[in-house]
Amino acid sequence: MATISKRQLDETLAAFETTVSGADATVKLKDDKLFERLKTFKETTWFAKSDDLSAPVCARYGWINRGLETLYCPTCENTLVCEIPAEASPEEVLAKSKEYRDNLLTAHGESCPWAIHHLDDTAYRLPLSSPAHTIQAFRNRYKALSQHPPSIPKIVFNESQAGRSVNVDLLHQNLHVDGDESEELTRSCILLALFGWEFPNEQATDFLQCRLCARIVGLWNYDHIVTLTDADSADRRKRIKVAQDISVELPSHFDVLWEHRSYCPWICTPPGSGQQKLGWIATLDTVLSAGKPNRLLAHMPPPIPKVTRTTTALESA
Ligand SMILES: [Zn+2]
Ligand SMILES: [Zn+2]
Fold first, then answer.
1. Per the record's keyword annotation, is Calcium included, yes or no (predicted)?
2. How far is the CA of 127 from the centre of ligand 2 (A)?
3. CA distance 155 to 166
4. What does the domain layout of the chain look like in residue ranges?
5. CATH 1.10.1170 is held by the domain 32-118
6. pLDDT tens sequence across 146-194
7. CB 3.0 to 4.6 Å from 222: which of 26, 113, 153, 195, for a disulfide?
């Protein structure tokens, strides 16, 4: 008899649990409080730590980042300083991070609930959801983005770094969204939405945010698609700068992959989380398989099981 693993069971149950709530469908961490803690970790105050001491790990142990290399527990109000000298070798960073990780539990106050309990590895992952929910959430991200053309930055999507090509036209077709946007605008919105990027809300369309790694990026530094005159002048400025050999240049295009934090479930599979595929690949596969002509399959004869015929002792007798 075929057995079903716990993971398969979870995924099957999740498909029934999640209801497709149309305009509300979204992809976010299951635990809102975990996300709120994660938001406090900034590149300027939490850096040069190994995976043992990444922001999601500390947040799973109840800590927020308050001040330079400092963790703070809002429940017991204890702090834990995790200094790693800038000149530390990679081996020292690993050793130090491991040492601090042991303190993530013990540094809480005696009566703090975090001293005996923390969220396990599975708390930080792409949330389980049904294909219908995944597609609806993608469609919602796309629609919201495409309604604000002046906000959309020029984007970079490097297929060889991503390890997978994307047929934007096919995705657009499978999402069943109409619109008369330009080809470049459609492509940008599709790829931003595929990688989980969205406006924080209707009013804050000058930012893109990720609801899994809590990255928020201001869009004013990037070249935009729609404001042609500005884009032209930006291109010109850039050419002039290149000509003058000025080496420091802000990126003019938004990289849909690398703007996420390195631990983001959209672009990696967090260790121990049970997540099988990178978030964007899982989304891509779901939308593509939803567009496959299943109706045709219904009229096809069932596949013939492949039998390797061997002569048994009984037959040869
Ligand atoms: Zn505590
Ligand atoms: Zn992210």
1. no
2. 13
3. 14
4. 32-118, 131-290
5. yes
6. 999 999 999 999 999 999 999 999 999 998 887 777 889 999 999 999 9
7. 153
